[in-house]
Amino acid sequence: MKNTITGYTGLYGIVAHPIKHSFSPMMHNTAFQTLGINDVYLAFEVTDEHLGDFITSVKTLNIKGFNVSMPYKLKIMDYLDELTEEAKLCQAVNTVKNENGRLIGHISDGQGFIKACFEKNWHIKDEKIVVLGAGGAACAIIVSLAKEQAREIVVYNRSDKPFIRELNEKLSCPIVLKSLSDQEALKNDLKDAYLLVQTTNVGMSPNVDGCLIEDDSYLHQGLKIADIIYNPKKTKLLEMAKDKGLDYMNGEGMILYQGAVSFEFWTGQVMPILEVKKALEMEE
């Protein structure tokens, strides 16, 4: 393969700990190469005590932008100059752009989820949506669902989440928080829901037998089901959906499209999705 790195090559990356397992370098380098952009993307495994040093390096080396993964999606905000509206609402950041030393934080998870839904020809506007879990990924998804004008979002979680009340004050879509222990309420809410979104780690490998939905009687014909887990590719919940003939998706699309949102935030260009899917060996 031809070496295209020169003295003019720009640098992007991802910071987290650990991070060597990340899909992001393959995703973004494929996009850069496909579009003929003279940039590269690397993984930076940085410990907590050196996060400030990393930010200094970003400015000193003129790193053009970077993604942020666990455990730094909250802590990184201490080092930023500006947040987008989505990042302010979620109080979390997974994408940073360096504009002449000014660091701007964004979160692309929720928009990535929406784009994955649109690829499936699912719509959001004027629909009732049930969300399982209220962690960081759920917050980003809820914000984006609300901004896409969902009719109502019902969130089921084991504990209280004050950010739900804060979002209700800032967004026009009603967001209702209910206890996950109230299975009867969950069953009733799913009866007229368009989409069920599973955002917890229940069912993730190696604990693949876990599922927050007790049986397929909760799932009506026509219900769309999204589980943001991608390992395994088909969780117990998605197996249930498949057996019932329902339309469903796992978390691969969200991973792909949150990267695409970051890419466009940095470069102003649309990520070449087909080529990136091939590089990541994602199923069509």
TrEMBL record:
<feature type="binding site">
    <location>
        <position position="94"/>
    </location>
    <ligand>
        <name>shikimate</name>
    </ligand>
</feature>
<dbReference type="InterPro" id="IPR006151">
    <property type="entry name" value="Shikm_DH/Glu-tRNA_Rdtase"/>
</dbReference>
<keyword id="KW-0521">NADP</keyword>
<comment type="pathway">
    <text>Metabolic intermediate biosynthesis; chorismate biosynthesis; chorismate from D-erythrose 4-phosphate and phosphoenolpyruvate: step 4/7.</text>
</comment>
<feature type="binding site">
    <location>
        <position position="109"/>
    </location>
    <ligand>
        <name>shikimate</name>
    </ligand>
</feature>
<feature type="domain" description="Quinate/shikimate 5-dehydrogenase/glutamyl-tRNA reductase">
    <location>
        <begin position="123"/>
        <end position="181"/>
    </location>
</feature>
<feature type="domain" description="SDH C-terminal">
    <location>
        <begin position="251"/>
        <end position="281"/>
    </location>
</feature>
<feature type="binding site">
    <location>
        <position position="230"/>
    </location>
    <ligand>
        <name>shikimate</name>
    </ligand>
</feature>
<dbReference type="Pfam" id="PF01488">
    <property type="entry name" value="Shikimate_DH"/>
</dbReference>
<dbReference type="InterPro" id="IPR036291">
    <property type="entry name" value="NAD(P)-bd_dom_sf"/>
</dbReference>
<dbReference type="InterPro" id="IPR011342">
    <property type="entry name" value="Shikimate_DH"/>
</dbReference>
<dbReference type="Pfam" id="PF18317">
    <property type="entry name" value="SDH_C"/>
</dbReference>
<feature type="binding site">
    <location>
        <position position="251"/>
    </location>
    <ligand>
        <name>NADP(+)</name>
    </ligand>
</feature>
<keyword id="KW-0057">Aromatic amino acid biosynthesis</keyword>
<protein>
    <recommendedName>
        <fullName>Shikimate dehydrogenase (NADP(+))</fullName>
        <ecNumber>1.1.1.25</ecNumber>
    </recommendedName>
</protein>
<feature type="binding site">
    <location>
        <position position="85"/>
    </location>
    <ligand>
        <name>NADP(+)</name>
    </ligand>
</feature>
<dbReference type="GO" id="GO:0004764">
    <property type="term" value="F:shikimate 3-dehydrogenase (NADP+) activity"/>
</dbReference>
<comment type="function">
    <text>Involved in the biosynthesis of the chorismate, which leads to the biosynthesis of aromatic amino acids. Catalyzes the reversible NADPH linked reduction of 3-dehydroshikimate (DHSA) to yield shikimate (SA).</text>
</comment>
<keyword id="KW-0560">Oxidoreductase</keyword>
<dbReference type="InterPro" id="IPR022893">
    <property type="entry name" value="Shikimate_DH_fam"/>
</dbReference>
<feature type="domain" description="Shikimate dehydrogenase substrate binding N-terminal">
    <location>
        <begin position="14"/>
        <end position="96"/>
    </location>
</feature>
<feature type="binding site">
    <location>
        <begin position="133"/>
        <end position="137"/>
    </location>
    <ligand>
        <name>NADP(+)</name>
    </ligand>
</feature>
<dbReference type="GO" id="GO:0019632">
    <property type="term" value="P:shikimate metabolic process"/>
</dbReference>
<dbReference type="GO" id="GO:0008652">
    <property type="term" value="P:amino acid biosynthetic process"/>
</dbReference>
<feature type="active site" description="Proton acceptor">
    <location>
        <position position="73"/>
    </location>
</feature>
<dbReference type="InterPro" id="IPR041121">
    <property type="entry name" value="SDH_C"/>
</dbReference>
<feature type="binding site">
    <location>
        <position position="258"/>
    </location>
    <ligand>
        <name>shikimate</name>
    </ligand>
</feature>
<dbReference type="GO" id="GO:0009073">
    <property type="term" value="P:aromatic amino acid family biosynthetic process"/>
</dbReference>
<dbReference type="InterPro" id="IPR013708">
    <property type="entry name" value="Shikimate_DH-bd_N"/>
</dbReference>
<dbReference type="GO" id="GO:0009423">
    <property type="term" value="P:chorismate biosynthetic process"/>
</dbReference>
<feature type="binding site">
    <location>
        <position position="228"/>
    </location>
    <ligand>
        <name>NADP(+)</name>
    </ligand>
</feature>
<keyword id="KW-0028">Amino-acid biosynthesis</keyword>
<feature type="binding site">
    <location>
        <begin position="22"/>
        <end position="24"/>
    </location>
    <ligand>
        <name>shikimate</name>
    </ligand>
</feature>
<comment type="similarity">
    <text>Belongs to the shikimate dehydrogenase family.</text>
</comment>
<dbReference type="GO" id="GO:0050661">
    <property type="term" value="F:NADP binding"/>
</dbReference>
<feature type="binding site">
    <location>
        <position position="69"/>
    </location>
    <ligand>
        <name>shikimate</name>
    </ligand>
</feature>
<comment type="subunit">
    <text>Homodimer.</text>
</comment>
<dbReference type="InterPro" id="IPR046346">
    <property type="entry name" value="Aminoacid_DH-like_N_sf"/>
</dbReference>
<dbReference type="Pfam" id="PF08501">
    <property type="entry name" value="Shikimate_dh_N"/>
</dbReference>
